[in-house]
């Protein structure tokens, strides 16, 4: 290989979502092949890559602060190369190189194959940026190097990009259009993980259930790829995220119901409970349509847990719209939610066409109401589990108390229980005895 190095070390720091975590594992693999070994110790590294998120301004602020704090390291070791990769690299491009912060190279999410070359040039003060987005890059042939892995669960990226154009969202601009990965390469990666001892894979993509692969005259859609992975072995659990409500088909729900090892949890971002706001967000569904999908999930998979994302204070949101979000939450009884204040992102449809007119203090007040309602719903959902027996896949010792093991049930709830003679990667039946705000606590039976 042309840009091969001898025994250099790379340190990778990852921010943002599961896609970024999975991308860092692809980057590690590409850099390994070029002669870099991964280190967990930044001060012994020759190359630092920061994999970044752009979803909200505070995600980017975190990166700016991190780059400031890297100034001292760069001063001590001027040969150290520092690169910004990922969504913020894609969004800000040259601006990152032109800042007075230590940034030597910039690479967007579709240009990771060129990282060895970019680093080579950056070391010589030459061409050090690649933010070209691709229509077909899926990194299908690259076997990820599992970083920070518990050896039990792993992500498999099955599609990249997003065509939905939600008006608030920066993702289509930083991650490009949707493209799906060859199903054979997905199944192969899952089989390899299983044979290495992994017992859970999460199929991920910005819009995972719009997965679509066409090969001659055969078509593979999301329910089929999910089923193929589930059929590898009954001991391999399969999860997926994130789903868009518009693509949540009955076929998918029936496939989930048919296989015990497809986990009974759906992350289904609703964003708002007001049809008027959903239209402005360009979400392509109404409040009633979302409620119908939830009712269908519960009819086909009664034990399924449902989590969501909610944005408070989107453009023009009135008190009445906000009440509709609260009432939808109350009706849906979400098991879990990620909740945010609307944050205008430059270049998005909302930034161009709508006024960010909900005052900051109102956004905060509404967000707090949403959070306190969800706290109540999450507690209720956990309380309802007390007395039930769940099959738990053991992921390791509990972070809080070393005498306890930690794992999750099919519904994606974290369960801890006294260790005994159990290894990670094993399945155990646990009787739930109590719950805290984040965890279920029980004993093995
Ligand atoms: N402001 C606030 N929240 C946002 N999200 C996406 N874009 C924005 C934004 N501009 C939230 C959505 C999405 C989650 C990943 O982040 O709820 O589902
Ligand atoms: Fe952040 Fe979205 Fe990029 Fe994930 S895809 S890192 S959430 S901007």
Summarize the structure.
With 445 residues, the chain is of the alpha/beta class.
Provide a descriptive summary of the structure in words.
With 445 residues, this protein is of the alpha/beta class. It has 3 domains: 8-130, Rossmann fold (3-Layer(aba) Sandwich), CATH 3.40.50; 153-383, tm_1862 like domain (pyruvate-formate lyase- activating enzyme, Alpha-Beta Horseshoe), CATH 3.80.30.20; 389-444, Nucleic acid-binding proteins (OB fold (Dihydrolipoamide Acetyltransferase, E2P)), CATH 2.40.50.140. It has helices at 18-33, 57-69, 71-76, 87-92, 94-98, 115-123, 171-175, 183-195, 222-230, 250-258, 275-280, 287-300, 319-332, 349-353, 360-383; strands at residues 8-14, 36-38, 47-52, 81-86, 105-107, 129-130, 153-157, 159-160, 179-180, 200-204, 212-215, 218-221, 237-241, 265-267, 305-312, 336-341, 389-397, 404-408, 414-418, 427-435, 440-444. The protein has a 6-stranded parallel β-sheet, sandwiched between helices. A 5-stranded mixed beta barrel has the order 17-18-19-21-20. A hairpin with a 6-residue loop joins strand 17 and strand 18. It binds 5'-deoxyadenosine and iron/sulfur cluster. Iron/sulfur cluster is lined by residues 16-17, 19-20, 53-55, 86-87, 170-171, 174-175.
